[in-house]
Amino acid sequence: MKLQKLLSGTQPLTQNYIVIIRVVMGMLFIYHGRELFDVKAMSNFAAWLKKDLHFPLPLLMAYLRTGAEFFGGIMLIIGLFTRLASFLICFTMLVAGFIVDKGDFFGEGEMPFAYAAILFTIYLAGPGKLSLDYFFFKK
Fold first, then answer.
1. Considering the domain boundaries, does residue 109 fall inside one?
2. Is residue 52 situated within a structural domain?
3. How far apart are CA 57 and CA 106, in angstroms?
4. Other beta carbons less than 10 A from residue 70's beta carbon
5. According to the 3-state scheme, what is the secondary structure of the chain?
6. Model's pTM, two decimal places?
7. pLDDT digit string (tens) for 65-122?
């Protein structure tokens, strides 16, 4: 009976795992989004978006991407507005995978697609019981 329970998965076990995934992903995206506070890095990123990718409003797009990563990472760690944060970062990763890496799923675009899959899993699973979402909204 215990083996069947272990293999089939249980709600409390899943809730604990999602917290680990949420926190690790949050730390990764805070790290990637830290350039939000570096004016030169943001200017260089915006110039690249304009020159190589022909993005409209490149400086705004640079700040939106980096802000989603940095503040979304914080939201993932504390578990507040988790679904919104995971959706926004997932969208950012899909843009990176399909536009920046030209949909190269098994090459350069591998990491953004892997991140997107993990973030979509967080979106579907929700924040778990160890989150501010659960504390405030009982979801």
1. yes
2. yes
3. 30
4. 20
5. CHHHHHHHCCHHHHHHHHHHHHHHHHHHHHHHHHHHHCHHHHHHHHHHHHHCCCCCCHHHHHHHHHHHHHHHHHHHHHCCCHHHHHHHHHHHHHHHHHHHCCCCCCCCCHHHHHHHHHHHHHHHHCCCCCCHHHHHHCC
6. 0.85
7. 999 999 999 999 999 999 999 999 999 999 999 998 888 888 878 999 999 999 999 9
Asked if residue 21 is part of any domain, the answer here is yes
The residue length of the chain stands at 139
The number of distinct structural domains making up the chain is: 1
Residue 132 · residue 78 · CB < 8 Å: yes
85 near 33, Cβ under 8 Å? no
Contacts (Cβ under 8 Å, ≥6 apart) of 68? 33, 88, 89, 91, 92
Residue 7 within any structural domain of the chain: no
- Other C-beta atoms closer than 10 Å to the C-beta of 124 total 10
User: What is the span of the domain harbouring residue 101?
Assistant: 13-137
Please tell me the distance from the alpha carbon of residue 94 to that of residue 109, in angstroms, as a whole number: 9
Rounded CA gap, 16 and 13, in Å? 5
